[in-house]
Amino acid sequence: MTEQQSAPPLIETVSIGKSYGGVVALCDVSTVVNAGQVTCVLGDNGAGKSTLIKILSGVHQHDSGQLRIEGRELRLSSPRAALDLGIATVYQDLAVVPLMSVWRNFVLGSEPVKRYGPLELLDRRQAQDIARKGLADMGIDIPDLEQPVGTLSGGQRQCVAIARAVHYGAQVLILDEPTAALGVKQAGVVLRYVVQARDRGLGVVLITHNPHHAYPVGDRFLLLKRGSALGSYEKSEIDLTELTRLMAGGAELEALQHELERVVP
Protein backbone atom coordinates (compact mmCIF):
# COMPACT_ATOMS: atom_id res chain seq x y z
CA MET A 1 0.00 0.00 0.00
CA THR A 2 1.40 3.40 -1.00
CA GLU A 3 1.77 6.33 1.35
CA GLN A 4 -0.99 8.23 -0.51
CA GLN A 5 -3.38 5.29 -0.24
CA SER A 6 -2.69 4.78 3.48
CA ALA A 7 -3.07 8.47 4.35
CA PRO A 8 -6.49 9.70 5.45
CA PRO A 9 -8.48 11.78 2.93
CA LEU A 10 -7.64 15.48 2.80
CA ILE A 11 -11.35 16.13 3.38
CA GLU A 12 -14.12 13.73 4.35
CA THR A 13 -17.76 14.56 4.98
CA VAL A 14 -19.83 11.99 6.88
CA SER A 15 -23.64 12.36 6.71
CA ILE A 16 -23.23 16.13 6.76
CA GLY A 17 -26.29 18.37 6.93
CA LYS A 18 -27.21 22.05 7.01
CA SER A 19 -30.52 23.87 7.55
CA TYR A 20 -31.47 27.52 7.33
CA GLY A 21 -34.43 27.91 9.66
CA GLY A 22 -37.00 25.41 8.42
CA VAL A 23 -35.30 24.94 5.04
CA VAL A 24 -33.08 21.87 4.72
CA ALA A 25 -30.28 22.86 2.33
CA LEU A 26 -28.14 19.73 2.74
CA CYS A 27 -29.03 16.36 4.25
CA ASP A 28 -26.91 13.27 4.93
CA VAL A 29 -24.18 13.94 2.34
CA SER A 30 -20.95 11.93 2.45
CA THR A 31 -17.91 12.16 0.19
CA VAL A 32 -14.11 12.22 0.27
CA VAL A 33 -11.41 14.34 -1.33
CA ASN A 34 -8.07 12.60 -1.76
CA ALA A 35 -4.68 14.03 -2.68
CA GLY A 36 -4.02 13.76 -6.40
CA GLN A 37 -7.68 13.20 -7.26
CA VAL A 38 -10.64 15.25 -8.53
CA THR A 39 -13.97 14.89 -6.73
CA CYS A 40 -16.76 16.27 -8.92
CA VAL A 41 -19.94 17.56 -7.28
CA LEU A 42 -22.79 17.71 -9.79
CA GLY A 43 -26.32 19.03 -9.55
CA ASP A 44 -28.73 21.59 -10.92
CA ASN A 45 -29.57 24.91 -9.28
CA GLY A 46 -30.86 24.33 -5.75
CA ALA A 47 -29.20 20.92 -5.47
CA GLY A 48 -27.06 21.95 -2.49
CA LYS A 49 -23.74 22.51 -4.24
CA SER A 50 -23.29 26.05 -2.91
CA THR A 51 -24.12 24.97 0.64
CA LEU A 52 -21.53 22.19 0.48
CA ILE A 53 -18.91 24.64 -0.81
CA LYS A 54 -19.65 27.07 2.02
CA ILE A 55 -19.21 24.34 4.63
CA LEU A 56 -15.94 23.10 3.11
CA SER A 57 -14.58 26.64 2.78
CA GLY A 58 -15.52 27.79 6.29
CA VAL A 59 -18.23 30.28 5.32
CA HIS A 60 -20.92 28.30 7.17
CA GLN A 61 -20.78 25.50 9.71
CA HIS A 62 -22.63 22.22 9.35
CA ASP A 63 -25.52 21.36 11.69
CA SER A 64 -25.17 17.58 11.64
CA GLY A 65 -22.71 14.90 10.61
CA GLN A 66 -18.94 15.21 10.63
CA LEU A 67 -16.34 17.17 8.69
CA ARG A 68 -12.89 15.60 8.86
CA ILE A 69 -9.72 17.29 7.66
CA GLU A 70 -6.87 14.79 7.26
CA GLY A 71 -8.62 12.47 9.70
CA ARG A 72 -9.39 15.11 12.37
CA GLU A 73 -12.98 16.07 13.05
CA LEU A 74 -13.21 19.85 12.83
CA ARG A 75 -15.64 22.73 12.50
CA LEU A 76 -14.25 25.47 10.28
CA SER A 77 -14.95 28.82 11.93
CA SER A 78 -14.11 31.05 8.95
CA PRO A 79 -12.67 31.09 5.42
CA ARG A 80 -9.36 32.16 7.00
CA ALA A 81 -9.40 29.00 9.13
CA ALA A 82 -9.99 26.90 6.00
CA LEU A 83 -7.20 28.69 4.14
CA ASP A 84 -4.81 28.13 7.05
CA LEU A 85 -5.51 24.40 6.64
CA GLY A 86 -4.69 24.58 2.93
CA ILE A 87 -8.28 24.72 1.61
CA ALA A 88 -8.53 27.37 -1.12
CA THR A 89 -11.79 28.20 -2.89
CA VAL A 90 -12.07 29.84 -6.30
CA TYR A 91 -15.60 31.18 -6.63
CA GLN A 92 -17.41 31.73 -9.90
CA ASP A 93 -17.02 35.52 -9.60
CA LEU A 94 -13.30 34.96 -8.79
CA ALA A 95 -13.11 37.86 -6.29
CA VAL A 96 -10.63 39.70 -8.51
CA VAL A 97 -10.28 43.46 -8.89
CA PRO A 98 -10.86 44.01 -12.63
CA LEU A 99 -8.99 47.33 -12.87
CA MET A 100 -5.90 46.05 -11.05
CA SER A 101 -3.04 44.47 -12.98
CA VAL A 102 -2.58 40.72 -13.28
CA TRP A 103 0.43 40.72 -10.94
CA ARG A 104 -1.32 42.92 -8.38
CA ASN A 105 -4.29 40.56 -8.27
CA PHE A 106 -1.96 37.57 -7.98
CA VAL A 107 -0.38 38.79 -4.73
CA LEU A 108 -3.53 40.46 -3.35
CA GLY A 109 -3.67 39.77 0.38
CA SER A 110 -0.13 38.34 0.44
CA GLU A 111 1.84 41.35 -0.78
CA PRO A 112 5.63 41.36 -0.28
CA VAL A 113 6.83 44.59 1.32
CA LYS A 114 9.98 46.64 1.73
CA ARG A 115 10.59 48.15 5.16
CA TYR A 116 12.05 51.58 5.67
CA GLY A 117 12.10 52.07 9.42
CA PRO A 118 8.46 52.15 10.53
CA LEU A 119 7.21 52.33 6.92
CA GLU A 120 6.17 49.38 4.78
CA LEU A 121 5.91 49.76 1.02
CA LEU A 122 4.81 47.27 -1.61
CA ASP A 123 7.81 45.56 -3.23
CA ARG A 124 6.64 45.80 -6.84
CA ARG A 125 9.56 43.92 -8.34
CA GLN A 126 9.28 40.98 -5.97
CA ALA A 127 5.50 40.90 -6.43
CA GLN A 128 5.90 40.79 -10.21
CA ASP A 129 8.49 38.01 -9.89
CA ILE A 130 6.14 36.01 -7.66
CA ALA A 131 3.29 36.35 -10.17
CA ARG A 132 5.52 35.53 -13.13
CA LYS A 133 6.92 32.41 -11.44
CA GLY A 134 3.53 31.24 -10.16
CA LEU A 135 1.99 31.48 -13.63
CA ALA A 136 5.02 29.91 -15.33
CA ASP A 137 4.98 26.95 -12.92
CA MET A 138 1.48 26.13 -14.18
CA GLY A 139 2.46 26.76 -17.80
CA ILE A 140 0.26 29.86 -18.08
CA ASP A 141 1.56 32.45 -20.53
CA ILE A 142 0.35 36.02 -20.01
CA PRO A 143 2.92 38.26 -21.72
CA ASP A 144 1.86 41.53 -20.10
CA LEU A 145 1.41 41.24 -16.34
CA GLU A 146 0.63 44.96 -16.19
CA GLN A 147 -2.63 44.60 -18.07
CA PRO A 148 -5.81 44.89 -16.00
CA VAL A 149 -7.09 41.45 -15.06
CA GLY A 150 -10.52 42.52 -16.30
CA THR A 151 -9.18 42.54 -19.88
CA LEU A 152 -8.37 38.81 -19.75
CA SER A 153 -10.78 36.21 -21.07
CA GLY A 154 -12.92 34.30 -18.59
CA GLY A 155 -10.76 31.22 -19.02
CA GLN A 156 -7.55 33.19 -18.43
CA ARG A 157 -8.95 34.72 -15.25
CA GLN A 158 -9.89 31.25 -13.96
CA CYS A 159 -6.38 29.99 -14.73
CA VAL A 160 -4.77 32.93 -12.90
CA ALA A 161 -6.95 32.19 -9.85
CA ILE A 162 -6.02 28.49 -9.95
CA ALA A 163 -2.30 29.27 -10.30
CA ARG A 164 -2.52 31.72 -7.39
CA ALA A 165 -4.10 29.12 -5.09
CA VAL A 166 -1.51 26.50 -6.05
CA HIS A 167 1.39 28.94 -5.57
CA TYR A 168 0.29 29.91 -2.07
CA GLY A 169 0.29 26.33 -0.88
CA ALA A 170 -3.26 25.04 -1.27
CA GLN A 171 -3.66 21.33 -0.57
CA VAL A 172 -7.33 21.32 -1.52
CA LEU A 173 -8.62 23.42 -4.40
CA ILE A 174 -12.39 24.00 -4.54
CA LEU A 175 -13.60 25.32 -7.91
CA ASP A 176 -17.12 26.74 -8.09
CA GLU A 177 -18.53 26.26 -11.61
CA PRO A 178 -15.25 27.30 -13.29
CA THR A 179 -16.50 26.52 -16.81
CA ALA A 180 -20.11 27.71 -16.47
CA ALA A 181 -19.82 30.88 -18.54
CA LEU A 182 -17.10 29.70 -20.93
CA GLY A 183 -17.11 28.49 -24.51
CA VAL A 184 -15.82 25.06 -25.50
CA LYS A 185 -12.21 26.14 -26.10
CA GLN A 186 -11.91 28.23 -22.93
CA ALA A 187 -13.53 25.47 -20.86
CA GLY A 188 -10.95 23.05 -22.22
CA VAL A 189 -8.13 25.37 -21.15
CA VAL A 190 -9.48 25.57 -17.59
CA LEU A 191 -9.95 21.80 -17.36
CA ARG A 192 -6.35 21.32 -18.47
CA TYR A 193 -5.18 23.34 -15.47
CA VAL A 194 -7.53 21.39 -13.19
CA VAL A 195 -5.65 18.27 -14.29
CA GLN A 196 -2.32 20.02 -13.70
CA ALA A 197 -3.36 20.88 -10.14
CA ARG A 198 -4.41 17.27 -9.59
CA ASP A 199 -1.13 15.98 -10.99
CA ARG A 200 0.78 18.24 -8.58
CA GLY A 201 -0.84 16.28 -5.74
CA LEU A 202 -3.69 18.60 -4.80
CA GLY A 203 -7.12 17.33 -3.95
CA VAL A 204 -9.55 19.12 -6.26
CA VAL A 205 -13.29 19.63 -5.71
CA LEU A 206 -14.92 20.55 -9.02
CA ILE A 207 -18.44 21.94 -8.70
CA THR A 208 -20.35 21.80 -11.98
CA HIS A 209 -23.70 21.10 -13.59
CA ASN A 210 -22.04 19.79 -16.78
CA PRO A 211 -21.22 16.06 -16.79
CA HIS A 212 -19.30 16.47 -20.06
CA HIS A 213 -16.84 18.73 -18.24
CA ALA A 214 -16.72 16.60 -15.09
CA TYR A 215 -16.27 13.12 -16.52
CA PRO A 216 -12.94 13.56 -18.39
CA VAL A 217 -11.14 14.96 -15.31
CA GLY A 218 -13.05 13.36 -12.42
CA ASP A 219 -12.02 10.43 -10.24
CA ARG A 220 -15.17 10.49 -8.07
CA PHE A 221 -18.65 11.85 -8.69
CA LEU A 222 -21.14 13.05 -6.08
CA LEU A 223 -24.60 13.80 -7.47
CA LEU A 224 -26.86 16.10 -5.47
CA LYS A 225 -30.55 16.81 -5.84
CA ARG A 226 -32.56 19.07 -3.55
CA GLY A 227 -29.91 18.84 -0.85
CA SER A 228 -29.61 15.06 -0.81
CA ALA A 229 -27.15 12.72 -2.48
CA LEU A 230 -28.46 10.86 -5.53
CA GLY A 231 -25.33 8.75 -5.42
CA SER A 232 -21.56 8.73 -5.07
CA TYR A 233 -19.52 6.85 -7.66
CA GLU A 234 -15.93 6.05 -8.49
CA LYS A 235 -15.10 6.56 -12.15
CA SER A 236 -14.90 2.79 -12.66
CA GLU A 237 -18.50 2.46 -11.43
CA ILE A 238 -20.22 4.81 -13.87
CA ASP A 239 -19.86 5.90 -17.49
CA LEU A 240 -20.61 9.26 -19.04
CA THR A 241 -23.95 8.12 -20.47
CA GLU A 242 -25.26 7.02 -17.07
CA LEU A 243 -23.84 10.09 -15.35
CA THR A 244 -25.63 12.32 -17.87
CA ARG A 245 -28.87 10.34 -17.49
CA LEU A 246 -28.80 10.72 -13.70
CA MET A 247 -27.98 14.42 -13.98
CA ALA A 248 -30.84 14.98 -16.41
CA GLY A 249 -33.30 13.14 -14.17
CA GLY A 250 -33.56 10.13 -16.47
CA ALA A 251 -36.52 8.48 -14.75
CA GLU A 252 -38.46 11.76 -14.63
CA LEU A 253 -37.77 12.46 -18.31
CA GLU A 254 -38.87 8.95 -19.28
CA ALA A 255 -42.11 9.36 -17.32
CA LEU A 256 -42.71 12.74 -18.96
CA GLN A 257 -42.06 11.27 -22.39
CA HIS A 258 -44.62 8.51 -21.81
CA GLU A 259 -47.14 11.08 -20.54
CA LEU A 260 -46.66 13.28 -23.60
CA GLU A 261 -46.94 10.31 -25.93
CA ARG A 262 -50.32 9.47 -24.42
CA VAL A 263 -51.80 12.93 -24.96
CA VAL A 264 -50.47 13.51 -28.50
CA PRO A 265 -53.11 12.37 -31.05
From TrEMBL:
SUPFAM superfamilies: P-loop containing nucleoside triphosphate hydrolases. PROSITE patterns: ABC_TRANSPORTER_1 (PS00211), ABC_TRANSPORTER_2 (PS50893). Residues 11-251 form the ABC transporter domain. The keyword Isomerase does not apply. GO terms for molecular function: ATP binding. Pfam families: ABC_tran. PANTHER family: CARBOHYDRATE TRANSPORT ATP-BINDING PROTEIN MG119-RELATED (PTHR43790), SUGAR ABC TRANSPORTER ATP-BINDING PROTEIN (PTHR43790:SF8). This is Sugar ABC transporter ATP-binding protein. It comes from Nocardia tengchongensis.
